[in-house]
Specification:
This protein is an alpha/beta fold and 314 residues long. Helices cover 29% and strands 31% of the residues. It contains nine helices and 15 strands. This is Methyltransferase.
């Protein structure tokens, strides 16, 4: 069985006796897959069953469905699971244009539908895969649909870059580095940075960052930032435009986890700079993790926070 983008808590359930090849580019999900005992490599032979969990990007969803269809044997079953907020209704409508959908099950705010893989696949699958392939965006950098702000540098990142200290030196880290936009802006403006470590949970975004940053000072880590431990060589500077949602609902807990991680990996005299939407309540978390912090810049949408003197490195 092939499972694409399995959600947290995905287990074998009724497939206890089936070998599950669970594929995910998200580091946290990958770790959960491994702990659950699933295989994390694609099957060598065509699968008889494939389950695709939709994400939030339409183009990426279509590409992953196309990939799953190609890995199915003719006569194999494809199941697609998603929420209305993931665009499940649109995906179902599109699939009905090209395939005979065998069934649909609706529950709460989600749906699952299934179909039988035909002997011959339509050419549209190749179109879907091509649309999701890495491409040069409006800033001349490599990205792909499904990555955060893949069409160009987002306003929050740009605002943080405008408000970085004039003289950044030493060892630095970018938490949730994405495809490398903030890191690139930092390295281009700060010759005093000796090394910059990019931490990112999305493997495809990190691969794009490798293409975008040819600077020898940069190193790349496929990592769940929230699980970072104190470093043997702590950082002098940590920067971040942390994610604030895994779904369409804001979840400040993600930003709070990034704040805590920054405190763990900073040197006692290190500086942490982050940008956040103005309405997100990070003040209490900053009080817990740092002895000193302030809002050093703001505009109508964003605030830049500078924090020093991390409380713990455990």
């Amino acid at each position: 069985m092939l499972a694409v983008n399995p959600v947290d808590g995905f287990d074998k359930g009724p497939f206890a006796d089936v070998v599950i090849h669970a594929l995910s580019d998200d580091k946290s999900s990958y770790e959960s897959i491994t702990l659950a005992g699933h295989t994390t490599e694609p099957p060598q032979q065509p699968a008889n069953l494939a389950l695709v969990f939709l994400g939030r990007n339409r183009v990426a969803n279509h590409a992953e469905i196309a990939m799953a269809m190609r890995r199915l044997a003719p006569g194999g079953i494809l199941l697609v699971d998603g929420q209305k907020t993931d665009g499940i209704d649109s995906v179902l409508k599109q699939m009905r244009t090209h395939f005979e959908v065998a069934g649909v099950l609706s529950k709460s705010h989600g749906k699952v539908f299934w179909l039988v893989r035909p002997e011959y696949l339509p050419d549209v699958l190749e179109d879907w895969e091509n649309l999701a392939s890495p491409q040069v965006n409006s800033d001349g950098l490599i990205t792909a649909p499904g990555m955060f702000s893949h069409e160009g540098i987002d306003p929050g990142t740009a605002f943080l870059a405008e408000n970085l200290p004039q003289k950044c030196t030493g060892r630095a880290a970018d938490l949730g580095a994405g495809w490398g936009a903030l890191s690139l802006l930092l390295l281009n403006s700060a010759p005093g940075i000796t090394t910059l470590h990019l931490y990112e949970a999305d493997r495809k975004a990190l691969d794009a960052a490798r293409e975008n940053l040819q600077d020898p000072r940069a190193s790349f880590h496929w990592s769940d930032v929230t699980s970072l431990k104190a470093q043997a060589q702590p950082y002098d500077l940590v920067i971040s435009n942390p994610p604030f949602h895994t779904t369409r609902k804001a979840e400040p807990s993600l930003g709070i986890a990034f704040i805590e991680a920054a405190a763990r990996i900073l040197s006692p005299k290190g500086v942490f700079l982050m940008v956040a939407n103005r309405h997100l309540p990070y003040e209490a978390a900053l009080d817990v993790s740092f002895r000193s912090w302030s809002e050093t810049a703001n505009n109508a949408r964003y605030k830049v926070i500078t924090a020093t003197a991390p409380r713990t490195r455990t």
